[in-house]
Design brief:
28 strands, 6-stranded mixed sheet, Peptidase_M24_C, alpha/beta, 695 residues, metalloaminopeptidase activity, Creatine Amidinohydrolase, Chain A, domain 1, single chain, Creatine Amidinohydrolase, 32% helix
């Protein structure tokens, strides 16, 4: 590309986990999306004709006597990211985003997805499909009421819908003379036929003790202790989410790209343990670990994966009570347990226990996210990839690698600095495009000591993608946006206000067990004040060598209250459609706050940011920052210099050390023009959001 164009490009850096797509760059903001309003319709080359798939599906629908069929973008374990063989919505619609629901009727096909994916959907779907921009289940139900006559049936696969989601559809359709029909034969699978990707065959392996917070036997004993203390004394816990079985048994696999999980279920009773999985895939070491204490209450019986429904149904015939998490248990399994034998909560005890990291897990995750570690411990560090976002904005999309800790956090920061310096020197000269940048990142990754591979592919994109919060599928941990040209005043203000939101939430003090939803407004306040906002969540939990998006931690209404030991991302952003995108994301540990007055029975909490990458000074308008925010930045930068600087000097990376020193210089309060968003405003917002939680 001509250097004159690249001199005004900014780059967005996502450090530690993101998956993006990369269409060809378009010359305008609209030439690479479909236009179904003209004749003939305009379809970009990224579109696939879905007529054959839809016709075949409608024939199956006719055979099963249904007038509509609902196709979600998930699997039988309610996974956010899915294997290729479970990408049914992508196959039937060509839309590959990680969130969406398709509905096919005898005459129409429609897709519902959120604002992150609207542009992507317009690029990928043909004109057989309508795009619906309201994502609530109620809106899908209302559309079905309009399109499907009374007395007709609506089909779905009960093993692809959680209990809560099934009940939501049932509630909307109640009394409408339209019937939800569970069809255990997935109709998309029947149409997909032999073209559907095969089941995985790779080995399921035991995670080394150095990467685990506890032995699996200790974890099982802890869950059984919670069962005993429960008011309804459940006799069993049914585990459906893939992260649950992986975490409980300290096992990992690669059934889903870039997520170290494997297809399985588990039924943990007060005296027995059943793991439903393909036995042939278990490594010898894994089988030995699971059977080491057989017979006995810590003996794991391995049963075939597809036998889980029959086994649960048989167990439920006795004098038992089965504890389930309704967010991850499918209606297909729920339906075989009598109502009077169910113990329901939103999340299973394994899911909530996994969310609170013990001391060892905290050490591992600090190391993984570029913070201090022990020279004798082992942990996870992170690699990088490249993906692009938009007009003047490109996104670095890194992968995860596994390393002994030693100084992995320092090694990781060193490599990030090396890459940033390389980009800084080469982008303005027009010597870097998305692909060459991706190749360079791969080279850095391969050269990294003890590297065992990435958590996702290195991908690149450009064009109007900067305005997309997630292009294709996005899983991110640390995000930095940088600009080496001359940003506009609006870009600087938008970036600074995003940074202010990040800082305000990161330095907030709040009572233990406060809902993340209650404090989330702090990340948005600086944007709201000038009529700006962003359409995605503010944060998500972080797994210990598991999924980068780990529920149930976060800032949404269905997340659990925040307690000490949880890891979460803090990631406000702003996206100007068709022009640019900004996101600033850090990973933070929930820790006990040191308050002036005693906390009483319940401790007060705050966040400890464990990411150590400086923000872009070129995009910060210091006149918007309060003195407290400037002090926070200066303290953060001093921490980066202290932890990363000595390693750069030890390696004699003088140019990189100068880059670090230059980019972490303290901000001067003397440059403040205005400090209107200071402590008084924050205190007022606390009083509004937490009126009954005054210290």
């Amino acid at each position: 590309m001509p250097s004159s164009r690249w001199t005004t490009w900014a780059w967005m850096l996502l450090l530690s986990g993101c998956a993006m797509g990369w269409p060809k760059q378009s010359s305008s903001a609209t030439s690479d999306i479909r236009n179904c309003t003209i004749s003939p319709p305009f379809l970009p080359p990224t579109v696939t004709d879905t007529s054959a798939q839809l016709n075949a599906l409608r024939q199956r629908m006719q055979f099963y006597n249904i007038s509509a069929y609902i196709v979600p973008a998930t699997d039988a374990h309610m996974s956010e990211y899915i294997a290729e063989r479970d990408a049914r919505l992508a196959w039937i619609s060509s839309f590959t985003g990680s969130a969406g629901t398709g509905v096919v009727t005898t005459k129409k096909a429609a897709l519902w997805t959120d604002s992150r994916y609207w542009t992507q959907a317009e690029r990928q779907m043909d004109c057989n499909w309508e795009l619906q921009k309201i994502v609530w289940t109620d809106s899908i139900g209302e559309w079905l009421l309009q399109e499907i006559p009374a007395g007709e049936n609506i089909g779905l696969d009960p093993f692809l819908f959680s209990i809560d989601l099934w009940n939501s559809y049932a509630r909307v359709l109640q009394g409408s003379s339209r019937t939800l029909v569970p069809i255990e034969d997935n109709l998309v699978d029947l149409v997909w036929g032999t073209q559907r990707p095969p089941s995985p065959t790779s080995k399921i392996y035991l995670l080394p003790e150095t990467f685990t917070g506890s032995t699996w036997q200790e974890k099982v004993s802890g869950i059984r202790s919670q069962m005993e203390k429960h008011s309804r004394s459940p006799t069993a816990v049914l585990l459906s989410a893939l992260e649950e079985t992986a975490w409980l048994f300290n096992l990992r696999g690669d059934d889903i790209s870039y997520n170290p999980v494997f297809f399985s279920y588990a039924l943990l009773t007060t005296s027995d343990i059943s793991l439903f999985v393909d036995r042939n895939r278990l490594s010898t070491e894994t089988l030995q670990s699971l059977s080491a204490q057989c017979p006995g209450p810590l003996c794991v019986q391995v049963e075939e994966y597809d036998q889980v429904r029959a086994s649960v149904q048989a167990y439920a015939q006795g004098d038992v009570r089965v504890w389930i998490g309704t967010e991850y248990t499918t209606y297909g399994l729920y339906g075989v347990i009598p109502q009077d034998k169910l113990v329901e909560s939103s999340y299973s005890p394994v899911m909530t226990t996994k969310a609170v990291k013990n001391a060892k897990e905290q050490t591992l995750l600090r190391a993984a996210h570029v913070s201090a570690g022990s020279p004798s411990a082992e942990g996870l560090a992170w690699g990088w990839g490249l993906a692009g976002m938009g007009k003047g904005l490109v996104l670095l999309s890194p992968g995860r690698i596994r390393l002994p800790v030693g100084r992995p956090q320092v090694r990781d920061a060193v490599a990030v600095i090396q890459y940033l310096l390389w980009l800084e020197k080469n982008v303005p000269k027009g010597l870097v495009d998305e692909f060459s940048g991706a190749r360079y990142v791969d080279k850095l990754r391969r050269e990294k000591e003890h590297c065992r591979g990435a958590s996702f592919e290195t991908i690149s994109a450009s064009g109007l993608n900067a305005a997309l919060a997630h292009y294709r599928d996005g899983t991110t941990d640390i995000t930095r946006t940088v600009h080496w040209g001359e940003p506009t005043p609006f870009q600087k203000e938008a970036y600074t206000r995003v940074l202010m939101g990040n800082i305000d939430l990161a330095r907030l003090v709040f009572p233990s067990e406060t809902s993340g939803r209650v404090v989330e407004a702090f990340a948005r306040r600086a944007l709201w004040e000038v009529g700006l906002n962003y359409g995605h969540g503010t944060g998500h939990g972080i797994g210990n060598f598991l999924s980068v998006h780990e529920w149930p931690v976060g800032f949404q209404s269905n997340n659990v209250p925040l307690v000490k030991g949880m890891f979460t991302s803090i990631e406000p952003g702003y996206y100007q459609e068709g022009e640019f995108g900004i996101r600033i994301e850090d990973v933070a540990l929930v820790v006990e706050a040191q308050t002036k007055h005693g906390a009483g029975e319940k401790a007060y909490l705050t966040f400890e940011v464990v990411s150590l990458v400086p923000y872009d000074r070129n995009l910060i308008d210091i006149s918007f920052l309060s003195e407290d925010q400037i002090q926070y930045l200066n303290t953060y930068y001093e921490t980066i210099r202290q932890r990363v600087g000595p390693e750069l000097q030890r390696r004699q990376l003088e140019e990189e050390y100068e880059w670090l020193r230059r980019n972490t210089q303290p901000f001067s309060r003397g440059t403040l023009v205005a400090a209107s968003l200071g402590t008084l405003a924050i205190t007022s917002l606390v009083s509004t959001l937490l009126p009954d939680r005054q210290a």
